[in-house]
């Protein structure tokens, strides 16, 4: 029995990268663009920033964690802390007020 699927068969992909779209938890229930609020090799700092933003009601997503693990966790690939575009200004303000603006 033949199926209509095959790998690599004639599909062309756009060379242009689509904007990063992620779905936040059902409490937010929206899709949106993500923006970076911090980048660091320090997992303790990233954890602190995540909790700081969560306490302010801002959901975060940590990107590049698995890439960092693949490099042996030597810190060659910084992890990025992302927030929804709609929360970006407020997140930056929360971080600045806590003395945690990007160094």
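^ structure tokens above, recovered residues below v
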């Amino acid at each position: 029995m033949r199926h209509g699927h095959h790998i690599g068969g004639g599909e062309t992909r756009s060379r242009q990268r689509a904007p990063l779209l992620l779905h936040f938890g059902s409490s937010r229930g929206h899709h949106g663009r993500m923006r970076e609020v911090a980048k660091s090799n320090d997992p303790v700092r990233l954890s602190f920033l995540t909790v700081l933003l969560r306490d302010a009601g801002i959901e975060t997503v940590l990107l590049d964690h698995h890439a960092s693990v693949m490099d042996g966790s030597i810190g060659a690939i910084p992890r990025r802390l992302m927030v929804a575009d709609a929360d970006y200004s407020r997140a930056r303000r929360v971080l600045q007020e806590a003395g945690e603006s990007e160094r």
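The radius of gyration is 18 Å.
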